[in-house]
Write a structure and sequence with these properties.
This protein is of the alpha/beta class. The protein has 2 domains: 10-45 and 312-426, Aspartate Aminotransferase, domain 1 (Alpha-Beta Complex); 62-305, 3-Layer(aba) Sandwich (Aspartate Aminotransferase, domain 2), CATH 3.40.640. It is built from 14 helices and 13 strands. The protein has helices at 10-29, 43-47, 78-88, 102-116, 142-151, 167-176, 199-206, 208-211, 239-246, 275-285, 294-304, 307-336, 362-371, 403-426, and strands at residues 34-36, 95-97, 133-138, 154-161, 164-165, 180-185, 217-221, 252-257, 269-272, 342-344, 353-357, 374-376, 393-396. The strands form 3 sheets. The chain has an 8-stranded mixed beta sheet with strand order 2-9-8-7-6-3-4-5, sandwiched between helices. Strand 3, helix 5 (142-151) and strand 4 form a beta-alpha-beta unit. Helix 1 packs antiparallel against helix 14, helix 12 (307-336) packs across helix 14 and helix 13 crosses helix 14. The chain binds 4'-deoxy-4'-aminopyridoxal-5'-phosphate. Residues 39, 101-103, 141, 186, 191, 221, 223, 257, 259, 264, 269 line the site of 4'-deoxy-4'-aminopyridoxal-5'-phosphate (PMP). This is Aminotransferase/MSMEI_6121. GO terms for molecular function: L-aspartate:2-oxoglutarate aminotransferase activity. It holds the Pfam family Asp_aminotransf.
């Protein structure tokens, strides 16, 4: 029987608390050790790319006849730029291929913008003196926040709605405060909500360059650009095409990587930006390296080939991931649907389900689950400075555990949510 929190009498709540406590104690006694924390690919997913290790053989021939074993090629080899330009929806001559981590590229981009500036385009953020601020749609990705926290950039939150960031708030804040120099965006299958930005939001983001100062940059982290769980998942409009329409190409940096396409630890990252931005960016980048791993770039081109090759490869990932998401959602719907205790997202791609408890309960739920042997991402992690003002958001990451482990972990999770909610209601 589903008990609805709002409608339950005090006596029903007490009975319910007793039986839930017993259920919880039984889980606790069973010595579980389950983990629904970081969103990384499972070994099964990584194995989908194992042929990459033999794919080159002795053949290092490439389009530009470069000796890939040597230094150079700071912006990447042409065939690799072409391949990942398609993922970012930019032109190949607006593309740079980096090392294995897009987070590194994002960190470098923020650091150059803060201290070195934008070549002929604009001065650095720090040259203006005073606080530098970034907009952070929430809930969001903790490592974006830590980039800013580490560089002393203040984070200002805006709501992430079902169609993307609250653009009225974003535009207003930028108009009123010229110390806001950037915004974090994960435009397709956001971490953690799975949000896909609508065409209208993409177009409004492309127009921010018209109202912001010349050294404002959108940090467009399209980490899950091709990571749909089903064929009819919503598409994302091209940010750069919109920028071209509005003459704001210099106001955006786009990022992505193959961390969740091939190997998270040995993939390639990529960035898309206007040619003027690219010139300044590669100049700065050249101060810290002579060239990236071009052999790895060629391996990726041989494995993935083209956009169709990437799509086919991603279907294999979806076949591994989708059943995991289905189990999570089944537990949530069956255990918590109609109880009035929680809400959650049902993503069509990406790596996460974003879950909201009743206000004030996320930390309790994470603690209860941990004590019963189920590890969850710390409550608050999806907000700047680790502080979720409502203390309600929890990020569920089901990619690594086995189907059976997810099944067991979610049963515990649902019990913890019910127990915390009922206890709060009783007071
Ligand atoms: N951006 C987002 C939104 C992510 O979720 C992640 C990984 N969890 C990353 C970037 C990290 O990317 P990379 O491995 O390319 O550094």
């Amino acid at each position: 029987m589903t008990l609805q929190l709002e409608k339950a009498t005090t006596e029903q709540l007490r009975d319910w608390e007793t039986s839930l406590s017993q259920e919880y104690q039984a889980y606790k006694a069973s010595g579980l050790n389950l983990d629904l924390t970081r969103g990384k690919p499972s070994a099964e997913q990584l194995s989908l790319s194992d042929s990459i290790n033999q794919i080159l053989g002795d053949d290092l021939s490439n389009e530009s006849n470069t000796d890939l074993r040597n230094y150079g090629g700071l912006d990447g080899i042409p065939e690799c730029k072409r391949l990942f330009a398609e993922v970012l929806d930019v032109n190949p001559d607006e593309t740079l291929i980096g090392g294995n981590s897009s987070l590194t590229l994002m960190y470098m981009a923020a650091q150059f913008s803060l201290h070195q500036g934008f070549g002929e385009l604009a001065d650095s953020w720090s040259s203006e003196g005073g606080t530098v601020k970034f907009l952070a749609p929430v809930p969001g990705y903790d490592r974006h926040f830590s980039v800013c926290e580490h560089l002393g950039i203040e984070l200002v939150t805006v709501d992430l709605n079902d169609n993307g960031p609250d653009m009225d708030a974003v535009e207003q804040l930028i108009k009123n405060d010229s110390s806001i120099k950037g915004i974090w965006c994960v435009p397709r299958f956001s971490n953690p909500t799975g949000t896909v930005y609508s065409d209208e939001v993409v177009d409004r983001i492309a127009q921010l360059g018209k109202i912001a100062s010349s050294n404002f940059r959108v940090f467009w982290d399209n980490a899950y650009a091709v990571h749909s769980l089903n064929e009819d998942a919503p598409k994302l409009a091209s940010l750069m095409d919109s920028c071209r329409k509005h003459g704001t190409e210099d106001s955006v940096y786009l990022f992505g990587s193959t961390s969740k396409i091939t190997y998270a630890g040995a993939g390639v990252s990529f960035a898309g930006m206007s040619k003027a931005n690219l010139k300044a960016f590669t100049h700065h980048l050249g101060m810290s390296q002579i060239g990236p791993d071009k052999i790895n770039q060629l391996r990726h081109v041989r494995l993935l080939k083209d956009a169709d090759g990437i799509a086919e490869h991603m279907r294999q990932h979806a076949a591994v991931l989708k059943p995991r998401f289905d189990i999570v959602l089944k537990h949530l719907r069956e255990g918590l649907g109609d109880t009035g205790m929680a809400s959650w997202t049902e993503p069509q791609g990406g790596y996460f389900v974003s879950f909201d408890t009743l206000p004030g309960l996320a930390k309790d739920v994470v603690k209860l689950a941990a004590e019963a042997g189920v590890k969850l991402t710390p409550a608050g992690a999806t907000f700047p400075y680790g502080k979720d003002p409502a203390n309600s958001n929890i990020r569920i990451a089901p990619s690594v555990p086995s189907l059976d482990e997810i099944d067991r972990a979610m049963a515990v999770f649902v019990t913890c949510v019910k127990l915390a909610s009922v206890r709060q209601r009783i007071g």
